[in-house]
Amino acid sequence: MVVTGGSSGIGLAAAVALARAGDEVVLLGRDPGRLQHAVDAVREAGGRTPAAYRADFAVLDEVREAGAKLVADHERIAVLVNNAGQLAPARRLTADGLDPTMQVNHLAGFLLTHLLFERLLAGATTTAPARIITTSSAAEAWGTLDVARPGRRQVSRWLAYGASKQANVLFTVEAARRWTQYGVVPTCFFPGLIRSRFGRRSPMFSLAKLAPGLFRSAEQGAETLLWLADADEALVPGGYFAWKRPFGATGRSTNADRARRLWQSSLTAVGLEASTTAP
Ligand SMILES: NC(=O)c1ccc[n+]([C@@H]2O[C@H](COP(=O)([O-])OP(=O)(O)OC[C@H]3O[C@@H](n4cnc5c(N)ncnc54)[C@H](OP(=O)(O)O)[C@@H]3O)[C@@H](O)[C@H]2O)c1
Fold it and tell me: Could you tell me if 271 and 60 are in contact, meaning their C-beta atoms sit under 8 angstroms apart?
Protein backbone atom coordinates (compact mmCIF):
# COMPACT_ATOMS: atom_id res chain seq x y z
CA MET A 1 0.00 0.00 0.00
CA VAL A 2 1.52 3.31 -1.14
CA VAL A 3 0.55 6.39 0.91
CA THR A 4 1.42 9.90 -0.25
CA GLY A 5 1.43 12.47 2.52
CA GLY A 6 2.47 9.56 4.72
CA SER A 7 4.80 11.68 6.84
CA SER A 8 2.12 13.47 8.88
CA GLY A 9 -1.51 13.67 9.96
CA ILE A 10 -4.10 11.44 8.30
CA GLY A 11 -1.61 9.65 6.02
CA LEU A 12 0.72 8.81 8.88
CA ALA A 13 -2.15 7.63 11.09
CA ALA A 14 -3.38 5.37 8.25
CA ALA A 15 0.13 4.03 7.58
CA VAL A 16 0.64 3.15 11.24
CA ALA A 17 -2.74 1.40 11.45
CA LEU A 18 -2.07 -0.54 8.27
CA ALA A 19 1.37 -1.62 9.45
CA ARG A 20 -0.13 -2.71 12.77
CA ALA A 21 -2.60 -4.87 10.81
CA GLY A 22 0.31 -6.52 8.98
CA ASP A 23 0.14 -4.69 5.63
CA GLU A 24 3.27 -3.67 3.74
CA VAL A 25 3.32 0.12 3.71
CA VAL A 26 5.26 2.43 1.40
CA LEU A 27 5.56 6.08 2.44
CA LEU A 28 5.94 9.26 0.44
CA GLY A 29 6.64 12.58 2.12
CA ARG A 30 8.34 15.88 1.53
CA ASP A 31 10.12 16.81 4.75
CA PRO A 32 13.09 14.48 5.48
CA GLY A 33 12.75 14.77 9.26
CA ARG A 34 9.02 14.03 9.31
CA LEU A 35 9.48 11.21 6.81
CA GLN A 36 12.13 9.58 9.02
CA HIS A 37 9.85 9.95 12.03
CA ALA A 38 7.07 8.26 10.03
CA VAL A 39 9.41 5.41 9.04
CA ASP A 40 10.23 4.88 12.73
CA ALA A 41 6.55 4.97 13.75
CA VAL A 42 5.54 2.47 11.05
CA ARG A 43 8.42 0.16 11.95
CA GLU A 44 7.39 0.28 15.59
CA ALA A 45 3.77 -0.52 14.68
CA GLY A 46 4.41 -3.34 12.21
CA GLY A 47 7.87 -4.65 12.92
CA ARG A 48 9.22 -3.94 9.40
CA THR A 49 11.00 -0.89 8.05
CA PRO A 50 8.82 0.62 5.31
CA ALA A 51 10.23 1.81 2.01
CA ALA A 52 10.12 5.62 1.95
CA TYR A 53 10.51 8.13 -0.85
CA ARG A 54 11.01 11.86 -0.52
CA ALA A 55 9.51 14.15 -3.13
CA ASP A 56 8.25 17.72 -3.11
CA PHE A 57 5.05 17.59 -5.15
CA ALA A 58 5.56 21.26 -6.00
CA VAL A 59 8.35 20.05 -8.31
CA LEU A 60 7.08 17.65 -10.97
CA ASP A 61 10.58 16.31 -11.70
CA GLU A 62 10.74 15.10 -8.09
CA VAL A 63 7.41 13.29 -8.60
CA ARG A 64 8.78 11.68 -11.79
CA GLU A 65 11.92 10.60 -9.95
CA ALA A 66 9.99 9.11 -7.02
CA GLY A 67 7.60 7.40 -9.46
CA ALA A 68 10.51 5.82 -11.34
CA LYS A 69 12.06 4.56 -8.09
CA LEU A 70 8.74 3.12 -6.92
CA VAL A 71 8.30 1.32 -10.24
CA ALA A 72 11.83 -0.07 -10.01
CA ASP A 73 11.40 -1.25 -6.41
CA HIS A 74 7.85 -2.65 -6.43
CA GLU A 75 6.32 -5.12 -8.89
CA ARG A 76 2.75 -4.71 -7.66
CA ILE A 77 0.73 -2.06 -5.87
CA ALA A 78 -2.61 -3.13 -4.43
CA VAL A 79 -3.62 0.26 -3.03
CA LEU A 80 -2.46 3.78 -3.89
CA VAL A 81 -3.55 6.51 -1.48
CA ASN A 82 -3.31 9.99 -3.01
CA ASN A 83 -3.43 11.90 0.25
CA ALA A 84 -0.66 14.54 0.12
CA GLY A 85 -2.19 17.97 0.33
CA GLN A 86 -1.68 21.45 1.61
CA LEU A 87 -3.08 24.92 1.78
CA ALA A 88 -0.21 26.58 -0.07
CA PRO A 89 1.13 29.61 1.77
CA ALA A 90 2.36 31.37 -1.36
CA ARG A 91 0.38 32.22 -4.45
CA ARG A 92 3.47 32.29 -6.64
CA LEU A 93 3.41 29.74 -9.44
CA THR A 94 5.62 26.67 -9.01
CA ALA A 95 8.78 26.08 -11.04
CA ASP A 96 6.49 24.10 -13.36
CA GLY A 97 4.41 27.25 -13.93
CA LEU A 98 1.35 25.93 -12.08
CA ASP A 99 -0.78 27.06 -9.15
CA PRO A 100 0.99 25.54 -6.09
CA THR A 101 -2.12 24.23 -4.37
CA MET A 102 -3.48 22.64 -7.54
CA GLN A 103 -0.10 21.13 -8.35
CA VAL A 104 0.47 19.58 -4.92
CA ASN A 105 -3.12 18.51 -4.25
CA HIS A 106 -4.18 17.28 -7.69
CA LEU A 107 -1.68 17.41 -10.57
CA ALA A 108 1.26 15.73 -8.80
CA GLY A 109 -0.97 12.85 -7.65
CA PHE A 110 -2.49 12.64 -11.12
CA LEU A 111 1.02 12.28 -12.57
CA LEU A 112 2.14 9.78 -9.94
CA THR A 113 -0.96 7.64 -10.50
CA HIS A 114 -0.17 7.46 -14.21
CA LEU A 115 3.45 6.56 -13.51
CA LEU A 116 2.30 3.74 -11.20
CA PHE A 117 -0.65 2.54 -13.26
CA GLU A 118 1.09 -0.59 -14.61
CA ARG A 119 1.96 -1.57 -11.05
CA LEU A 120 -1.67 -1.09 -9.99
CA LEU A 121 -2.75 -3.30 -12.87
CA ALA A 122 -0.27 -5.91 -11.63
CA GLY A 123 -1.67 -5.50 -8.11
CA ALA A 124 -5.24 -6.26 -9.19
CA THR A 125 -6.35 -9.90 -8.94
CA THR A 126 -9.49 -11.59 -10.23
CA THR A 127 -10.99 -11.52 -6.76
CA ALA A 128 -9.55 -8.23 -5.43
CA PRO A 129 -9.30 -5.12 -7.58
CA ALA A 130 -6.53 -2.61 -6.98
CA ARG A 131 -7.74 0.58 -5.31
CA ILE A 132 -6.92 4.25 -5.70
CA ILE A 133 -8.08 6.35 -2.75
CA THR A 134 -7.89 10.14 -2.89
CA THR A 135 -8.29 12.45 0.08
CA SER A 136 -10.68 15.20 -0.97
CA SER A 137 -12.68 17.58 1.22
CA ALA A 138 -16.06 19.23 1.69
CA ALA A 139 -14.12 22.29 0.50
CA GLU A 140 -14.83 20.99 -3.03
CA ALA A 141 -18.13 22.86 -2.66
CA TRP A 142 -16.46 26.26 -3.00
CA GLY A 143 -14.01 25.20 -5.69
CA THR A 144 -13.76 27.61 -8.61
CA LEU A 145 -12.11 25.23 -10.99
CA ASP A 146 -11.57 26.07 -14.63
CA VAL A 147 -11.31 22.50 -15.96
CA ALA A 148 -9.62 23.70 -19.15
CA ARG A 149 -6.78 25.34 -17.18
CA PRO A 150 -6.39 23.65 -13.80
CA GLY A 151 -2.93 25.11 -13.19
CA ARG A 152 -3.90 28.72 -13.66
CA ARG A 153 -3.07 31.08 -10.80
CA GLN A 154 -5.87 31.41 -8.26
CA VAL A 155 -6.68 34.68 -6.52
CA SER A 156 -7.18 33.27 -3.03
CA ARG A 157 -5.55 30.29 -1.34
CA TRP A 158 -8.87 29.01 0.03
CA LEU A 159 -10.46 29.19 -3.43
CA ALA A 160 -7.40 27.40 -4.78
CA TYR A 161 -7.81 24.76 -2.10
CA GLY A 162 -11.50 24.27 -2.92
CA ALA A 163 -10.66 23.98 -6.62
CA SER A 164 -7.99 21.36 -5.92
CA LYS A 165 -10.41 19.29 -3.82
CA GLN A 166 -12.99 19.56 -6.60
CA ALA A 167 -10.29 18.24 -8.94
CA ASN A 168 -9.78 15.28 -6.57
CA VAL A 169 -13.43 14.23 -6.97
CA LEU A 170 -13.46 14.85 -10.74
CA PHE A 171 -10.27 12.78 -11.06
CA THR A 172 -11.96 9.94 -9.18
CA VAL A 173 -15.06 10.10 -11.41
CA GLU A 174 -13.07 9.96 -14.66
CA ALA A 175 -10.53 7.42 -13.39
CA ALA A 176 -13.46 5.16 -12.47
CA ARG A 177 -14.91 5.48 -15.96
CA ARG A 178 -11.57 4.60 -17.53
CA TRP A 179 -10.01 2.07 -15.19
CA THR A 180 -12.68 0.06 -13.37
CA GLN A 181 -12.87 -2.28 -16.39
CA TYR A 182 -9.16 -3.10 -15.82
CA GLY A 183 -9.70 -4.01 -12.18
CA VAL A 184 -8.59 -0.70 -10.68
CA VAL A 185 -11.28 0.97 -8.55
CA PRO A 186 -10.92 4.67 -7.61
CA THR A 187 -12.78 6.26 -4.70
CA CYS A 188 -12.32 9.43 -2.68
CA PHE A 189 -13.36 10.74 0.72
CA PHE A 190 -13.73 13.68 3.09
CA PRO A 191 -11.97 12.92 6.40
CA GLY A 192 -13.85 15.54 8.42
CA LEU A 193 -12.16 18.43 10.18
CA ILE A 194 -8.93 17.00 11.51
CA ARG A 195 -6.35 18.30 13.95
CA SER A 196 -3.10 17.94 11.98
CA ARG A 197 -0.41 20.17 10.48
CA PHE A 198 -2.88 21.16 7.76
CA GLY A 199 -3.81 24.86 7.72
CA ARG A 200 -1.37 25.78 10.48
CA ARG A 201 -0.48 29.02 8.69
CA SER A 202 -4.12 30.05 8.37
CA PRO A 203 -5.15 32.12 11.44
CA MET A 204 -8.83 31.32 10.76
CA PHE A 205 -8.26 27.56 10.57
CA SER A 206 -5.91 27.55 13.56
CA LEU A 207 -8.47 29.43 15.63
CA ALA A 208 -11.23 27.01 14.60
CA LYS A 209 -9.09 24.13 15.90
CA LEU A 210 -9.54 25.53 19.42
CA ALA A 211 -13.33 25.10 19.28
CA PRO A 212 -14.27 22.10 21.43
CA GLY A 213 -15.62 19.09 19.55
CA LEU A 214 -15.23 20.57 16.06
CA PHE A 215 -12.00 18.84 15.07
CA ARG A 216 -11.14 15.17 15.43
CA SER A 217 -7.83 13.32 15.67
CA ALA A 218 -5.73 12.20 12.71
CA GLU A 219 -6.54 8.60 13.67
CA GLN A 220 -10.25 9.37 13.37
CA GLY A 221 -9.56 11.13 10.07
CA ALA A 222 -7.95 7.94 8.77
CA GLU A 223 -10.93 5.71 9.59
CA THR A 224 -12.74 6.14 6.27
CA LEU A 225 -9.47 5.79 4.36
CA LEU A 226 -8.75 2.46 6.07
CA TRP A 227 -12.27 1.27 5.32
CA LEU A 228 -11.93 2.26 1.65
CA ALA A 229 -8.65 0.35 1.48
CA ASP A 230 -10.18 -2.87 2.67
CA ALA A 231 -13.97 -3.22 2.74
CA ASP A 232 -15.84 -5.01 -0.08
CA GLU A 233 -18.76 -2.59 0.23
CA ALA A 234 -16.34 0.30 -0.35
CA LEU A 235 -15.64 -0.90 -3.89
CA VAL A 236 -17.87 1.73 -5.48
CA PRO A 237 -16.14 3.06 -8.62
CA GLY A 238 -16.03 6.86 -8.49
CA GLY A 239 -17.61 6.92 -5.03
CA TYR A 240 -17.21 9.85 -2.62
CA PHE A 241 -17.46 9.00 1.08
CA ALA A 242 -17.29 10.45 4.59
CA TRP A 243 -17.65 8.57 7.87
CA LYS A 244 -17.70 5.31 5.86
CA ARG A 245 -20.88 6.34 4.10
CA PRO A 246 -21.66 7.87 0.69
CA PHE A 247 -21.27 11.63 0.85
CA GLY A 248 -22.76 14.22 -1.48
CA ALA A 249 -20.50 16.32 -3.68
CA THR A 250 -21.64 19.29 -5.72
CA GLY A 251 -22.59 18.77 -9.36
CA ARG A 252 -19.47 20.70 -10.42
CA SER A 253 -17.37 17.93 -8.87
CA THR A 254 -19.28 14.98 -10.28
CA ASN A 255 -20.13 16.21 -13.77
CA ALA A 256 -18.85 13.60 -16.25
CA ASP A 257 -18.10 16.12 -18.98
CA ARG A 258 -16.07 18.33 -16.61
CA ALA A 259 -14.25 15.22 -15.40
CA ARG A 260 -13.26 14.28 -18.97
CA ARG A 261 -12.09 17.80 -19.76
CA LEU A 262 -10.07 18.06 -16.57
CA TRP A 263 -8.39 14.74 -17.38
CA GLN A 264 -7.22 16.03 -20.77
CA SER A 265 -6.00 19.37 -19.42
CA SER A 266 -4.26 17.63 -16.51
CA LEU A 267 -2.40 15.34 -18.94
CA THR A 268 -1.18 18.45 -20.74
CA ALA A 269 -0.27 20.26 -17.51
CA VAL A 270 1.98 17.43 -16.32
CA GLY A 271 3.48 16.76 -19.75
CA LEU A 272 1.82 13.42 -20.49
CA GLU A 273 0.60 12.52 -23.95
CA ALA A 274 -2.87 10.99 -24.10
CA SER A 275 -1.64 8.43 -26.66
CA THR A 276 1.24 7.12 -24.53
CA THR A 277 -0.38 6.95 -21.10
CA ALA A 278 -2.63 4.57 -19.25
CA PRO A 279 -5.98 4.00 -21.00
N1 LIG B 1 -6.99 18.44 8.30
C2 LIG B 1 -8.21 18.63 7.82
O3 LIG B 1 -9.11 19.19 8.49
C4 LIG B 1 -8.55 18.15 6.42
C5 LIG B 1 -9.88 18.26 5.99
C6 LIG B 1 -10.20 17.82 4.71
C7 LIG B 1 -9.23 17.28 3.90
N8 LIG B 1 -7.93 17.20 4.33
C9 LIG B 1 -6.93 16.64 3.42
O10 LIG B 1 -6.27 15.58 4.07
C11 LIG B 1 -5.00 15.38 3.47
C12 LIG B 1 -3.96 15.16 4.53
O13 LIG B 1 -3.86 16.34 5.32
P14 LIG B 1 -3.59 16.31 6.88
O15 LIG B 1 -4.75 16.93 7.54
O16 LIG B 1 -3.13 14.98 7.32
O17 LIG B 1 -2.41 17.41 6.97
P18 LIG B 1 -0.86 17.32 7.31
O19 LIG B 1 -0.64 16.80 8.67
O20 LIG B 1 -0.33 18.67 6.99
O21 LIG B 1 -0.30 16.26 6.26
C22 LIG B 1 -0.15 16.59 4.92
C23 LIG B 1 0.74 15.59 4.23
O24 LIG B 1 0.90 16.01 2.86
C25 LIG B 1 2.29 16.15 2.58
N26 LIG B 1 2.56 17.29 1.72
C27 LIG B 1 2.17 18.57 1.88
N28 LIG B 1 2.72 19.34 0.93
C29 LIG B 1 3.50 18.52 0.17
C30 LIG B 1 4.34 18.73 -0.95
N31 LIG B 1 4.55 19.94 -1.46
N32 LIG B 1 4.96 17.65 -1.49
C33 LIG B 1 4.80 16.42 -0.97
N34 LIG B 1 4.03 16.16 0.10
C35 LIG B 1 3.39 17.21 0.66
C36 LIG B 1 2.96 16.42 3.93
O37 LIG B 1 4.33 16.09 3.82
P38 LIG B 1 5.43 16.71 4.85
O39 LIG B 1 4.86 16.54 6.22
O40 LIG B 1 6.62 15.82 4.61
O41 LIG B 1 5.64 18.12 4.49
C42 LIG B 1 2.13 15.53 4.85
O43 LIG B 1 2.62 14.21 4.82
C44 LIG B 1 -4.77 16.59 2.57
O45 LIG B 1 -5.01 16.22 1.22
C46 LIG B 1 -5.81 17.58 3.03
O47 LIG B 1 -6.20 18.45 1.99
C48 LIG B 1 -7.57 17.62 5.58
Answer: yes
Cα–Cα distance, 70 to 264 (Å, whole number): 25
Q: How far is CA 6 from CA 36, 51, 97, 244, in A?
A: 11, 11, 26, 21
| Bridge partners, residue 52, by sequence | 27
253 neighbors 166 (Cβ within 8 angstroms): yes
Q: How far is the CA of 154 from the centre of ligand 1 (A)?
A: 19
> Residues near ligand 1 with C-beta < 6 Å?
5-11, 29-31, 34-35, 56-58, 83-86, 104-105, 135, 137, 190-191, 193-194, 196-198, 218
Average pLDDT, the chain: 95
Cα 196 versus chain centre, distance: 16
Q: At 80, phi and psi to the nearest 5? A: -115, 125
Q: What angle do CA 56, 59, 193 make, to 5 degrees?
A: 50
CA distance 254 to 238: 9
CA of 5, closest atom in ligand 1? 43
Q: 185 pLDDT exceeds 80?
A: yes
So what's the architecture of 2-192+219-276 in CATH? Answer: 3-Layer(aba) Sandwich (3.40)
2: helix, coil or strand? strand
Pairwise CA distance, residues 105 & 161, whole Å: 8
Q: Where are the chain's structural domains? A: 2-192+219-276
Amino acid at site 270? V
In angstroms, rounded to a whole number, what is the distance separating the alpha carbons of residues 242 and 195?
16
Mean of pLDDT values over 47-55: 98
